[in-house]
Specification:
0% strand, mainly alpha, 398 residues
Length: 398
């Protein structure tokens, strides 16, 4: 899986963007398999050590509301490199933490830094890519994200067998590689007053709603599937984890191809079909009691989820050209909020009706379809006149 050549930068200049895609989910999820080891190391109960995840996500979700705009105001390159340096230092602090309080503070610093570098890397990637190829670049970025999400449980579990601190030292090493290999995104000078009003526009709010609904709905079905595999189908943790990881195979292999689909057919059409398809697949997984069949459906769902994510990132990257970072961070904030509230809605339903929980989460994707159609106008049917078209072509990916 190598960065794709084409117009614009290639090779090492694209590497830090893609490594940043890997780093976000990897740093978030790597403690998951080592939670029992962390619980024993710090001599606390399971509820307390679960803050190893929450301490990371809460500041990240909150800061995403403003982090992109802050980056635009003070210069993306400056803010990006600062956030990466903080992330590197925080990763080492996690590994060296003498007690639980220090550990959780360092995890919170990691999450806060992630809130800055993720949207700013995406904004920088959009800046240095011609719009006709933006989908495939973001598709490659999503492939690296999938590698990070799939690799985190494996690396975290392996490190826990030796010394859990090694996983965070490795995270610091990857962060250092990003700092070394890149001069940062193209915008090195801050915008004196990055526009705020477009972040409150109907289109961007609709895009945020689309992101929230799809992650609280069909894209959040991983939690439901994990519970079903263990409690309904009776699988042991190992096989259940392998099946859940299988959902990342499609995104890892097909990211650039899915991005090409959005370049060719537009974000509006691809996003609608992918969301509907994901909803259908998730709904069908509810009543199925065959482990092989569930695995096949989950493989298909992973690719559809990846296409939805590419569409949302692609639209957010161009919807506010004068404040790309602000738009991306706002949409990402809605996305993480959706992942946070989805289990609160559907896990209680699952205890009463497994099929109802899967079907309900799938139906929530209909909100995404309506919101996405509102956020992304149809492609023009006639060639545009010469010259810029403010508010239409520059802000419309599909």
């Amino acid at each position: 899986m190598s960065p794709e050549p084409g117009p614009g930068p290639t090779g090492l200049r694209l590497l830090p963007f893609y490594l940043g895609g890997f780093l976000g989910p990897f740093g978030t999820l790597v403690p998951v398999p080592m939670l029992p080891d962390l619980r024993d190391h710090f001599a606390v109960d399971s509820a307390t050590i679960s803050w190893a995840i929450s301490a990371y996500l809460l500041p990240m979700a909150g800061l995403l509301l403003v982090s992109g705009t802050i980056g635009e105001r003070f210069g993306r390159s400056r803010v990006l490199r600062t956030s990466l340096a903080v992330y590197l230092a925080a990763s080492l602090l996690v590994a060296a933490a003498p007690g639980l309080a220090a550990f959780l503070v360092a995890r919170a610093l990691q999450g806060a830094a992630n809130a800055f570098f993720t949207p700013l890397l995406l904004a920088g990637l959009a800046d240095i890519t011609v719009e006709s190829r933006l989908g495939r670049r973001i598709g490659m970025y999503s492939s690296f994200q999938a590698v990070g999400g799939a690799g985190a449980p494996f690396v975290g579990g392996l490190a826990a067998e030796i010394d859990w601190r090694l996983a965070f030292v490795g995270t610091a090493a990857v962060t250092g590689l990003i700092l070394v290999t890149s001069p940062g995104p193209s915008a090195t000078v801050g915008v004196e007053r990055p526009p705020i009003r477009p972040l409150l526009s109907r289109r961007l709010l609709a895009l945020g709603l689309a992101s929230l609904a799809v992650t609280a709905g069909p894209l959040g079905a991983q939690v439901l599937l994990g519970l079903k595999l263990r409690d309904v189908l009776g699988l042991d943790p190992g096989p259940a984890g392998l099946i859940l990881s299988a959902g990342f195979i499609g995104p890892i292999l097909l990211g650039p191809a899915l991005g090409r689909l959005t370049d060719r057919f537009g974000a509006r059409l691809c996003g609608t079909l992918a969301t509907v398809g994901a909803g259908v697949v998730v709904a069908l997984m509810g009543p199925i009691d065959s482990t092989p069949a569930v695995t096949v459906f989950w493989l298909a769902a992973g690719s559809l989820f990846a296409l939805v994510t590419v569409v949302l990132h692609r639209v957010a990257a161009v919807i506010v050209p004068d404040n790309r970072g602000g738009a991306l961070s706002a949409v990402l904030s809605f996305r993480f909020l959706g992942f946070a509230i989805g289990p609160l809605i559907w896990v209680p339903v699952l205890t009463s009706t497994v099929t109802g929980a899967f079907v309900g989460s799938a139906l929530l994707g209909l909100v995404t379809v309506v919101a996405l159609l509102s956020a992304v106008p149809p492609r023009p049917t006639t060639p545009p006149p010469p010259g810029p078209r403010p508010g239409v072509e520059a802000a419309t990916p599909g």
